[in-house]
Amino acid sequence: MFVNLQPAKLAPLGSEQHAVAPSPSSCELLDDLSQKLNYQLTCADILRLCLETLSSNLPQDFCGYILRTGEEYQVSIRPQRLLASPLIAQVQTRLVETMSCLSGKPVNLQQVSYQIAKVRQVQDQQSPLRQMTSYLSMPVILSEGSQVVGVLLVGTENPEAYTFEHLQLLNRVAGLSAIAITRLQALLAIGQQRLYSMVENLPDGLLLLDAQGNILLANQAAWKYVALLTKAGGLDSITQLAKLFSQEQNIIRLCHEISTDNNTRLVLELIGQPIQSAAPHPEWQLTIRDITLYRQNETELAQYVQRLTHSNAELERFAYLAAHDLQAPLCAVSGYLQVLRTCYKNQLDPTADRFIAKAIDGAKRMQSLIENLLSYARLESSHPVLETTNCETILENAIANLQQEIATTGARITHQCLPIVQGNPALLTHLFQNLLSNAIKYQPPNRIPQIQIESQRQGEMWQFCFQDNGIGIDTQHAEQVFQLFKRLHSSAEYPGTGLGLA
Predict the structure, then answer these.
(1) What pLDDT digit, counting tens, does each position of 404-415 carry?
(2) What is the residue range of 377's domain?
């Protein structure tokens, strides 16, 4: 549509001038615009690209785009230079009037939202206001039903500024924008259908409520839960949530237990949270979830933990009492064996002496095993207090406790500067001592133990590395060596009880 306030020198619509083919530069321009529009996912981006193309390739002092989205209209205006507000009002009115004329549907100005592009200020802001004298407009028509959804409009102060080539360019831009809007609407429709199907098939109930608790939208599962709550007299839970809506702006949670027709108990969790929308009044999303199985599992887990705690306590008490009660008869056996070896020394044959020696050695190993078992039982039942502990001091104490082994084997122990940590000094000393003892003990014959201790910060924790030149641990036994009484070698090869690493 041409609107020329001055006498126009345009050829009649039926003249041969209308058959002018677009120039190569126009074709390249439109191809580039078409490619860009293919990647736009919002109407605002489509409007922006179209106005950028028109403002750069048509004589104009302004260009605008009005687009109908549902029952509302969106207007975008792109001045090339600063326009005074009265002229902006003139442009907006021209757009709305043109849209009403072409679509055959009156446009309510209250339904129009304006987006005026920001431009740099011109040097002369005091220039006199002049009226637009030439307008060029083109409807944006979707292919289905020849529906007019928008209008492209350009204008200038210069009279007789537009030619048919300009009209062709505007027509092609309008056509490309219509194709882009159609594609966008199809994508949105597919997305909305997918979203609808996904929400409808959710096991949780989803509802949209107003501040009074009225249900605005709900999925299939929500209606099922609302029916159960209504029948069980639990619909007050939703009303109770609604009362909290006006007081809270965060997530609200309520739990409600109901009984079904077959006397099955259900525990429903109701979660309400405010949502951001264009509605004039606050709206809330309510999720209703069946947590019956979760509550049952939670109860069963608590009972299992309680039974396990009780069982562990009984086992620890049994281990402590058994080890303690075993010491008395073991001491008697060991004492009588010592008396037997002392009193009958050189009176029995060599075989008897050898048997007595083995019996005494077995009693000593049994005594060591009982003592270790007692220590383990005390450790399991204790609640150690953590305190600031210098690991340098811990290592010194552990080495002092192993002086005899170190002197006998000639072991060399080197270490970096060890950190200060939160720990229990007694337990850390025991740990360092056991690790060093194992490194000294598990060596090939005639090899001097070399032990290197390092530490490295790992976030809020410290990692300690004890490295030695001993026989090592096969990776397949890496877990087993930390189990109770687990030994990889016989007592004849390497003495011990199998409790050190445990």
Answers:
(1) 888 888 889 999
(2) 297-382
- The DSSP-derived string for 243-285 is HHHTT-SS-EEEEEEEE-TTS-EEEEEEEEEEE--S-SS-EEE
3-state SS, residue 458: strand
- 285 and 307 belong to one structural domain: no
Task: Give the total number of structural domains in the chain.
Answer: 4
Whether 413 and 328 map to the same domain: the answer is no
pLDDT digits 0-9 by tens, 147-191: 778 888 888 878 778 888 888 888 889 889 888 888 888 888 898
- Domain shared by 51 and 182, yes or no: yes
pLDDT of residue 118: 32
Closest CA to 138 of 88, 185, 109, 178: 178
CA gap 500, 453 in Å, rounded: 18
Is 284 inside any structural domain? yes
Greater confidence (260 vs 13) lies with 260
Q: Give pLDDT tens digits for 188-223.
A: 889 888 988 898 999 999 988 887 778 888 899 988
Q: Are residues 97 and 160 in the same domain?
A: yes
Residue 357: both structure tokens together: 């020696």
487 found inside a domain: no
CA angle 152, 154, 159 (to 5 degrees): 145
Report if residue 491 sits inside a domain: no
Secondary structure class of 61 (helix, strand, coil): coil
Q: What is the DSSP letter of 384?
A: P
Between 306-315, 426-435, 446-455, 459-468, the lowest mean confidence (pLDDT) is in 306-315
306 plus 286 within the same structural domain: no
Listed residues 235, 262, 290: the one ending a domain: 290
Q: How far is CA 375 from each of CA 147, 429, 479, 498, rounded to the nearest angstrom?
A: 88, 14, 22, 13
Please classify residue 157 by burial: count the beta carbons closer than 10 Å to its beta carbon, then call 0-12 exposed, 13-18 middle and 19+ buried: middle
**Do 321 and 250 share a structural domain?**
no
271 shares its domain with 317: no
Percent of the chain with pLDDT over 70: 70
Nearest-angstrom CA–CA distance, 285 and 138: 43
The residue written with tokens 């006199």 in the block is 128
Contacts of 144 (CB under 8 A, 6+ apart): 182
Q: What are phi and psi of 427, to 5 degrees?
A: -70, -40
d(CA 396, CA 401) in angstroms, rounded, equals 9
Q: Is residue 422 part of a domain?
A: yes
Give pTM, 2 decimals: 0.45
Is residue 390 pLDDT above 90, yes or no? yes
pLDDT tens-digit map of 330-365? 788 788 788 888 887 778 788 888 888 888 877 877
Pairing of strands 147-156, 62-69: antiparallel
